[in-house]
Amino acid sequence: MKSTLQIPENILTQFVDVARETIGKNLLGVYLHGSAAMGCFNPKSSDLDLLVGVKEALDDSTKRCFMDRVVALHEEFVKLSGSSHAGIEMSVLLQKDCKPFVYPTPFDLHFSAMHLKWYKDNPDDYVQKMKGTDEDLAAHITITRARGRCLFGMPINDFFGEVPAENYFDSIRADVENAESEITENTNYLVLNLARVLAFKKDGLVLSKLEGGQWALENIPAEYQGIVEAALAEYESGEPAQYDKSASVNYAKYMLGLII
């Protein structure tokens, strides 16, 4: 079950051009991870997930220039996809924090659709404050090393050091630890993420959400498979599925009992 929809290579090319033109010689690499690198991209529901590697921290004027162009490209991609559920998500990382790998991983700048309003309302405040550490980066870097694409610059394993398995598991476990209370509000995401977390814990597999769902169909009891099948159908089609709330909560309880 692999998406037949095309990855917008023109958007990726433009993103690399933006990074090279605004960051200049400080830019060490641009890397694609997530669904677009793992064979299950769907522009109706998938982000373009990117990591930008730099040698030194960006100054605020460079961040502002870079963000202006990334936001414009994000909006172009949203218009192209025809869905507000798709967009660009990216983080700027310093080489010294990636090899050797630091956990939780510092980031120098981040952007995703959920932060668009903040940037548009107060861009100066955004570029000054949007930095810190992010446990999710352990998962992003693991996937980049395992399945990612280098779009520009240093080879992936030259820029990113190995992520200890315990850091990767902590990162993906944290993403689902509140699934029992949150699954009725974010069903598709949590159904598939619970599956891929369990696949790593049981079998050491680094999977996409789609692959996690497929793994679950072969590895969890039949009574929980219906909700996984519905989540997989929604993920591939981009069309909302109808979920039974009690079945969703029971699935989350079962999966968390094996994960935590």
Quick take:
With 260 residues, the protein is an alpha+beta fold.
Topology:
Blueprint: H1 9-23, E1 27-33, E2 48-54, H2 60-81, E3 88-94, H3 95-98, E4 105-107, E5 109-111, H4 116-121, H5 123-129, E6 132-134, H6 136-147, E7 149-153, H7 156-159, H8 165-174, H9 179-182, H10 187-203, H11 209-219, H12 225-237, H13 245-259
Parallel strand pairs: 2-3
Antiparallel strand pairs: 1-2, 1-7, 3-5, 4-6
Helix pairs in contact: 1-2, 2-5, 6-8, 10-11, 10-12, 10-13, 11-12
Description:
The protein has two domains: about 10-160, Beta Polymerase, domain 2, CATH 3.30.460; about 175-260, no CATH class. About 55% of the residues lie in helices and about 15% in strands. It has helices at about 10-25, 60-80, 95-100, 115-120, 125-130, 135-145, 155-160, 165-175, 180, 185-205, 210-220, 225-235, 245-260, and strands at about 25-35, 50-55, 90-95, 105, 110, 130-135, 150-155. The protein starts with 8 loop residues before the first helix and ends with a helix. The relative contact order is 0.13.
Number of helices: 13
Q: Let me know the number of strands.
A: 7
- Proportion of helical residues: 40-55%
Shape descriptor reads globular
What is the N-to-C succession of helices and strands? HEEHEHEEHHEHEHHHHHHH
Mean pLDDT: 95
Q: What is the gyration radius calculated from CA atoms?
A: 18 Å
**What characterizes the major β-sheet?**
5 strands, mixed
Main-sheet strand order equals 5-3-2-1-7
- Percent of residues in β-strands: 5-15%
Chain oligomer state? single chain
Return the domain count: 2
- Secondary-structure-derived class: alpha+beta
CATH topology of the largest domain: Beta Polymerase, domain 2
CATH class (first level) name of the largest domain = Alpha Beta
Q: Please give the alpha-carbon distance between the first and last residues.
A: 29 Å
